[in-house]
């Protein structure tokens, strides 16, 4: 994972290549997450599920762009950058349930699989960013990774809530 990511005297020093490698790995993971959520949004038949997966895809794409900016800054100017965080967009009007019973059963099983995979991946991302925050001595870098870890934790909680509701009650609650 991340080894010796340190910054001394305003520059990235001995851990530069390790820091850049760790950030590049995080960028790849964020793009993979974006692609996963985009596919899940296309596959789910439930409008609430589509909206949630679409917003998560946007979140992960935003993470990718911020990590890319950090990567470019460290590689070029050898400076850490700040990260203000990302928020969910406001929900539009409440979405209706418009599935037939047969579609709903098939869709529910697929959606539960997608949610289960996503929960595990969000937990891994959260742990990765927490580790990066601990190993990054620069305050801006550490703060960025802590914020990313908190956002991944939020995603995990949302996904867990949706999994519980869908599995136990048969309904999506996103946006309620």
In short:
The protein is mainly alpha-helical and 176 residues long. The protein is built from 4 helices and 2 strands.
What is this structure's SSE topology?
Elements: E1 7-8, E2 11-12, H1 16-43, H2 47-76, H3 101-135, H4 139-169
Antiparallel strand pairs: 1-2
Helix pairs in contact: 1-2, 1-3, 3-4
Structure description:
It is built from four helices and two strands, in the order ββαααα. By secondary structure, it is mainly α. It has a two-stranded antiparallel ribbon with strand order 1-2. Mean pLDDT is 82; it is low at 1-14 and 91-106. A hairpin with a 2-residue loop joins strand 1 (7-8) and strand 2 (11-12). It has a single domain, classed as Ferritin (Up-down Bundle), CATH 1.20.1260. The protein has helices at 16-43, 47-76, 101-135, 139-169; strands at residues 7-8, 11-12. It starts with 6 loop residues before the first strand and ends in a 7-residue tail after the last helix.
């Amino acid at each position: 994972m991340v080894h010796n990511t340190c910054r001394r005297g305003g520059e990235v020093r001995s851990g530069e290549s390790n820091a850049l490698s760790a950030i590049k790995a995080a960028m790849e993971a964020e793009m993979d997450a974006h692609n996963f959520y985009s596919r899940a949004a296309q596959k789910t038949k439930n409008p609430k599920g589509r909206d949630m997966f679409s917003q998560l895809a946007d979140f992960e794409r935003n993470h990718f762009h911020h990590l890319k900016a950090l990567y470019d800054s460290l590689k070029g100017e050898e400076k850490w950058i700040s990260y203000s965080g990302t928020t969910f967009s406001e929900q539009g009007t409440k979405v209706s349930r418009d599935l037939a019973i047969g579609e709903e059963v098939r869709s529910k099983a697929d959606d539960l699989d997608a949610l289960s995979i996503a929960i595990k991946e969000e937990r891994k991302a959260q742990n990765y960013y927490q580790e990066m925050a601990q190993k990054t001595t620069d305050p801006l870098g550490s703060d960025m990774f802590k914020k990313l870890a908190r956002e991944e934790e939020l995603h995990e909680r949302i996904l867990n809530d949706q999994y519980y509701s869908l599995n136990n009650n048969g309904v999506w609650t996103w946006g309620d």
